[in-house]
Amino acid sequence: MFKGFKEFIMRGNVIDLAVAVVIGAAFTAVVTALVTNIFNPLIAAIFNVETLSTAMTIPLRSGENPPVLALGAVLAALINFVLIAAVVYFVFVLPINRLKKAQARRRDEGVPAAVVDDPTTELDMLTEIRDLLAKNAIAPAQGTPALSTKH
């Protein structure tokens, strides 16, 4: 059970998704601030109300404190959605699609994506590190005190 969970977590898609969620949350704060502080006041000024959430309200019955349909609040949410969707499209989707098309074009033309003459594996790298450490681990010369952590 844990092995399957570990494989799931170690997939690149899960990490990419986590990064996307964090970036999305941070970006949502920016777009919300933009909508709240720029678009809402402009639209509220057009309708001559204090905030967009109080614009275009329709009372459902007469009397004291009637329930109302707040169409202005819905409009604010729609503006927020459209702005987020536009930024996601133009900042993420469009450049990635262009990159994929360019890669496909190069692949179709027979241009290799990357040519590596001598691919180094992790085992090769670890072996090289071990050999370097062994080479630099020289025993202290006779008469020379060994390094100590005592003070």
Automatic annotation (TrEMBL):
Protein species of origin: Cryobacterium psychrophilum
Subunit (UniProt): Homopentamer.
Protein's UniProt keywords contain Transmembrane helix: yes
Transmembrane segments: 21-47, 67-96
Source lineage: Bacteria, Bacillati, Actinomycetota, Actinomycetes, Micrococcales
Family, per entry: Belongs to the MscL family.
Protein name according to UniProt: Large-conductance mechanosensitive channel
Superkingdom classification of source: Bacteria
Keyword Isomerase in annotation: no
HAMAP family: MscL
GO MF, one example: mechanosensitive monoatomic ion channel activity
Function of the protein: Channel that opens in response to stretch forces in the membrane lipid bilayer. May participate in the regulation of osmotic pressure changes within the cell.
Keywords: Cell membrane, Ion channel, Ion transport, Membrane, Transmembrane, Transmembrane helix, Transport
Entry-linked Gene3D superfamilies: Large-conductance mechanosensitive channel, MscL, domain 1
Cellular component, GO annotation: plasma membrane
Matches recorded under InterPro entries: Mechanosensitive_channel_CS, MS_channel, MSC/AndL, MscL_channel
NCBIfam families per record: mscL
PANTHER family per the UniProt record, alphabetical: LARGE-CONDUCTANCE MECHANOSENSITIVE CHANNEL, MECHANOSENSITIVE CHANNEL MSCL
Record's bilayer topology term: Multi-pass membrane protein
PROSITE patterns reported in the protein's UniProt record: MSCL
Subcellular location: Cell membrane
